[in-house]
Write a structure and sequence with these properties.
272 residues; 4-stranded antiparallel sheet; 3-stranded antiparallel sheet; 9 strands; 35% helix
Length: 272
């Protein structure tokens, strides 16, 4: 849908990210306006901040909407998982950051609808004692409580491997869908593999007839937490506020197991 560029805000002398949509068709302009309106209402440390927006109409026949956002330095979770295995503390910290962000988002009537590793940035702030903070990006297919659907009734939006059962069935989507998608992401963090691999249609349909395999030997309360998040019935999934408290306890439980010795000269974990 778009290309993201690193750019310079010449007025303030800061680096920013500019998301330029590839086409300027009417449907894309509508989607751009929707994303801009959503992002403009959301201000939270777990969400990438929108700074400005507009439409490049240099060529009136091909208008390109764009978003100017803060530049987030770091990697995304998809790339991190491709290079190494995360420990329980790291997964718990990512879960807690995402729980806080989604709790805020849902309180404002917004459903993200596309929670996946590539939409979770791991940001290193460069402090002496640090851990990377997880931040949620790309609200391009999010809908708030007042908006109408931007896709047809027969279209399924989201990424096949991370769709909730109700998204795969093209049923009504609620905040419970974000909970399910986050559950799939966290399960992948622990296991290193997709819960529902395969071609898009095969992957999407698989969750309608089977539950993801959750290892019983996951640390602490994670098997119970993930089973509750990945219930096929959205009514059976916990609220994100309840989950955020559970994630916080998971951080405490895992921190002692992965604490670094005070006299260690080793470099801190890139995520933990």
């Amino acid at each position: 849908m778009a290309t993201v560029y690193r750019a310079i805000d010449e007025s303030l002398g800061r680096e920013v990210a500019i998301k330029v949509f590839r086409t300027g068709a009417a449907a894309d302009l509508t989607r751009h306006e929707e994303e801009t309106r959503l992002l403009a209402t959301l201000s939270h440390h777990g969400i990438v901040t929108l700074l400005d927006a507009g439409v490049d109409d240099t060529d009136p026949a091909e208008r390109h909407p764009f978003l100017v956002m803060e530049l987030v330095e770091g990697t995304n979770l998809e790339d991190a998982l491709a290079h190494r295995t995360l420990n329980a503390r790291e997964v718990s910290e990512i879960a807690y950051d995402m729980g806080e962000a989604l709790e805020f988002v849902h309180a404002h009537g917004v459903v993200h609808r596309d929670i996946k590793p590539s939409n979770i940035m791991l940001v290193d702030y460069g402090t002496t004692q640090f851990r990377a903070r997880a931040r949620l990006t790309d609200f391009g297919i999010a809908l708030d409580a007042e908006s109408s659907r931007l896709t047809s009734d027969t279209a399924t939006t989201g990424t096949a491997a991370y769709l909730s059962p109700e998204q795969a069935q093209r049923s009504d989507v609620s905040s419970a869908s974000d909970v399910y998608q986050l559950g799939l992401v966290l399960l992948q963090c622990f296991t290193g593999r997709l819960a529902f691999p395969g071609e898009p249609i095969e992957s999407a349909l698989a969750r309608l007839t089977s539950d993801p395999e959750i290892p019983d030997d996951l640390p602490d309360d994670w098997p119970l937490i993930l089973r509750s998040m990945l219930a096929r019935d959205p009514e059976q999934r916990p609220d994100i506020a309840e989950l955020t408290m559970a994630f916080r306890q998971a951080v405490f439980a895992a921190s002692g197991k992965h604490a670094m010795p005070e006299d260690s000269d080793s470099e801190p974990d890139p995520v933990g």
